[in-house]
Amino acid sequence: MDAAIEITQLQKKFKGFELSVQKLSVPKGFATALIGENGAGKTTLLNILAGIRLDYKGEVNYFDEKENDVEKVKGQLGYTGSGLFFLPQWTIRQVGEVGQLLYDDFDVERFEKYCSELGVTAREKKSKQVGDLSDGNRMKLVIATAFSRDTRCLLMDEPASPLDPLMRDDLCNLIRTYLEEGDGEKSVLFSTHNISDMESVTDYAIIMAEGEVVEQGFVEDLKNKYILVKGNPQDSEQAKQILYTFNSSSYGFEGICLAGNLDRLAGMDVSMEIPSLHQISVAVMKHYATLQNTR
Amino acid sequence: MKILQNSGVPIYQQIAEQMKTDILNGKMVQGEYLPSIRSLAKDLKISVITTMKAYEELEAQGLVSAVQGKGFYVNAQDAEMLKEQHMRKVEEALTEAITAAKIAGLNEEELMSTLKTLLVLSQEDE
User: Fold this and answer.
1) DSSP 8-state code for residue B12
2) Measured between beta carbons, which residues in chain B are less than 8 angstroms from residue A177?
3) Which tens digit of pLDDT belongs to each residue from B18-72?
4) Rounded distance, CA B90 to CA B85, Å?
5) pLDDT at A195
6) Which of A38, A148, A150, A195 has most Cβ atoms within 10 angstroms of its Cβ?
């Protein structure tokens, strides 16, 4: 699989925290979700990839090019984050004007189209100031600007968080349209805590914990690797030894089992289900946390 | 195409099944290109990897072929194989009916007469 971004031996040390990624590929032509607890290193990683943070060790390569021309790559990346990118006194119209000034590839007609589609300008006047917008609308404005440029890869830090359920659905559609337009050439990497809302658009998942990548893969493959099993109370003790994550009550147990270990459940009366990406992510994060605690 | 999110059947399988039906009953003809994986994902509001897996499934069954850079197209369907596929479906459905009949306590005669009645009804429909 071709990579949109390839990372080798990336390292960034802070006081009491270290981001350390040995090898990571963001697949080209797909939407990749970056999942992990608060403080797992998602934002630091995205900032490094976006070129916001330059003080790191290691290699980051974009678009499978032998050597990256930094200026060219910068022009091909789009970024959205939770920070304030626009001055509060700018109006929505002025945000579009500034976009045109800053980027040659900024399409102001598209910007206006997205603003109205996303409902920013449906209820708000174009003369409304950024500072007076709600969190959700401000994020929509950031998203509209990012999608108005002609980019090859979008890096989005928590785009879904301030959005309501309807808007998250719109965001998913925007991402799908972007991928379709790219026909295999455009990629999206977004971090999220709203795994369930974003699952329908997620092709590849990267799960992080304490500065490391602890699991990654195409969602369909992860769903073959992790199986959700449920069983009866009498098998609880035995299952506990086998399962990847385990939960029990007086009514029985449930947990995630690695597909390779399913044989060991033979003889138990268990039912199996394909887990959601949310369930897989929680299991991986819990498993990792337990490992840390027993170390 | 109807996609059920929580039916227990993986979405890629549902897509593959429905496309297979379209190919086998001739709705999609030899040489016809399938929609691109990304446009199908967009239309069905699902992830790209899901549609890709569905197409790979169809490819593995020999129903479609991939051309680098152009997408997937429908293969020529062998008439024998087509009949075989349909035959298998008939057998599956009848086996299911027999199982249900046993549970309901129907004897052979009653089952046959039910089948005959249904045959007559479906002929009237046509």
Assistant:
1) H
2) 42
3) 999 898 888 898 899 999 999 999 999 999 999 999 999 999 988 999 998 788 9
4) 9
5) 96
6) A148
The tens digit of pLDDT for each residue in A8-67 reads 999 999 988 999 999 999 999 999 999 999 999 999 999 999 998 899 999 999 998 888
**Amino acid of residue B33:** Y
CA distance B16 to B78: 19
Q: Which residues of A touch B (CB under 8 A)?
A: 29-31, 172-173, 176-177, 179-180, 182-184, 199-204, 218-220, 223, 273-274
- A103 Cβ neighbours under 8 A, 6+ residues apart: A75, A149
- Do residue B53 and residue A220 have CB atoms under 8 angstroms apart? yes
Mean pLDDT of all residues in chain A? Answer: 93
* Residues near A10 by beta carbon (within 8 Å), at least 6 away in sequence: A19, A20, A21, A24, A45, A48, A56, A57, A58, A59, A60
- Token pair of A162, please? 């301030």
B46 CB neighbours in chain A (<8 A) are: 200
**Domains recognised in chain A with CATH numbers:** 3-210 (3.40.50.300), 222-294 (no CATH)
Which pair of tokens denotes residue A112?
A: 């206006």
Q: Which of A249, A222, A232, A189 is nearest to A48 (CA)?
A: A189
Cβ within 8 Å, pair B47-A173: no
CB–CB contact B42 A180 (8 Å): yes
Would you state the pLDDT for residue A126?
Answer: 85
